[in-house]
């Protein structure tokens, strides 16, 4: 098979001492970022992206850079579980479900078992995701090569429409957040006509709002403000893991094969869609509970209750790379930032990557196998270290994170103006989180805005301005129709219940 | 209250975007193809509509009167990090990032965390030296500098 030989070439590219060192560095930084409140996958990668500018100049450098940055992503996925289990504080949104049974287990003195089970589940989930990418991605990319601008617009449209149907926030707020993202992306020089728009006469806005700066503010600073509200005092169980506990947990692990398998499928399926990891972890927990013989024991400290959300979150986090590599549409916030990195290094995300940048794509896929295996070993060995970091007083961690955010924002374009923008986004992130405006569609719109607009305008040019071009072929027609259905469905069901007089009109 | 203020702000922002895009040209150009403001104009109009929907919803549910944006006891801790952060960014502008960071971290640890002075000094100086090594020496990314660096002759 063609894929296998390309994969082995990828392993050869990824397995240099330099790249393995970067992988280890990335994983350690990722776990740190996942453990600390206020830093997470998206802004952790965003802050470290500027360090890879120089690396992006050569093809080998680009492979090294993506290996380091994606390793941060995997590390952050592992790290979220540590705080959830030991401190009952989810380091990441996708580890919220892990606290339900993880913390009770830790209180019973079985923290080592819970952590080992969570990490092992994560590893299996990730492995499942990478295998899926290895065999599915080339096919999807080959198919997507035939897409014209209208089809790409259809895919983008469907991506955003799916937020409206699935988001837990109110419909109008999801729409507002998405639109703000698109508007911010439109600021600056128009790529087609060269005209300035929405700059209001200031040169500073010439290049628009950089999404990296926005991500650092929204997720980094905003999160610190939120954490301060809770008045964080970490009081947690010790995170000692000895080899005996690990081996015992591994011996018992096959017993949970059903939970693991269904979580893998849920994760892989949800991960392809945007915002998947969080939804996948909750869904997988719920399914594990429903299919269990004793569902009442969930929440009191069942090992399955830890395995299910972690396996699904990792499977989803890894699968999020599939649409990013093949279509240029990131399936998660962190994947969106990685996509931004690709563009910064001068690569065009999308199906052409599989044709023009074979070494890059397969180096990345091979590194995903390696870094998740390495990650499992690293986290098992270093949990006590990271648990100790959480005992550092928050009055040291909070200002340091603010400094890291400022440095990260500055280094994107070496601009002080960006640091101010980051500060403003910090306040916006805080207020939006409190008022339940979703940040995920905002970020995604900010990343994809220009590409979506280009696809739209190219389609319009091709059809002399007739919207019917989006229904010109069965493929585009299906994408658009499903998208519109997803957009209208929540409104229609609401109207239906109101008309039946069952409920008073609540949120639309 | 905050809910309404945010919705009205979004409304105004949407209107501003729509107006500016209309000025740039939101229609179809003579040479064929949509003008620069074509896409943003429609986004602005949609944002105005969404903001109106949020307002309607808020008044309808009286949600704003029921839920409180922030508990009174939480305002202080949020401000204890928000205001120093603001001062810090202003400080970076004037003093450069190294001096501002050292003062910000040291002062925060001392006044908010009430930690021993030698710990504050150690972390304040230590993280700045590490930052200098990592960014300037290791990755050749210059960070903003101020009068102190000029006096020391570090560019």
If you had to describe this structure to a student in words, what would you say it looks like?
The complex is a heterodimer of chains A (508) and B (155). By secondary structure, chain A is mostly helical. Chain A has helices spanning 2-14, 17-35, 41-48, 59-87, 96-107, 111-144, 149-166, 171-186, 211-230, 243-252, 257-272, 276-291, 304-319, 321-327, 333-344, 353-356, 358-389, 394-413, 416-434, 439-462, 474-499; strands at 188-189, 196-197. Chain A has a two-stranded antiparallel ribbon. In chain A, helix 5 (96-107) packs antiparallel against helix 6. Mean pLDDT of chain A is 84; it is low at 503-508. Chain B is an all-alpha fold. The N and C termini of chain B lie far apart (49 Å). The model of chain B has no long low-confidence stretch (mean pLDDT 87). Chains A and B meet through helix 8, strand 2, helix 9, helix 18 and helix 19 of A and helix 1, helix 2, helix 4, helix 5 and helix 6 of B.
Number of strands of chain A: 2
Number of strands of chain B: 0
- Share of helical residues of chain A: over 70%
Which stretches of chain B are poorly predicted, pLDDT < 50 over at least 5 residues? none
Strand count, sense and barrel status of the largest sheet of chain B are: none
Tally the helices of chain A: what do you get?
A: 21
- Computed CA radius of gyration of chain B, to the nearest angstrom: 24 Å
Q: Approximately what portion of the residues of chain A adopt beta-strand conformation?
A: under 5%
Largest interface (CB within 8 Å) is between: A-B, 64 and 68 residues
Helix vs. strand class of chain A: mainly alpha
Number of helices of chain B: 7
Q: End-to-end span of chain B in angstroms?
A: 49 Å
Q: Which value, in Å, is the CA radius of gyration of chain A? A: 22 Å
Shape of chain A: globular
- Give the structural class of chain B: mainly alpha
Strand order of the largest sheet of chain A: 1-2
Our estimate of the beta-strand percent of chain B is under 5%
Oligomer: heterodimer
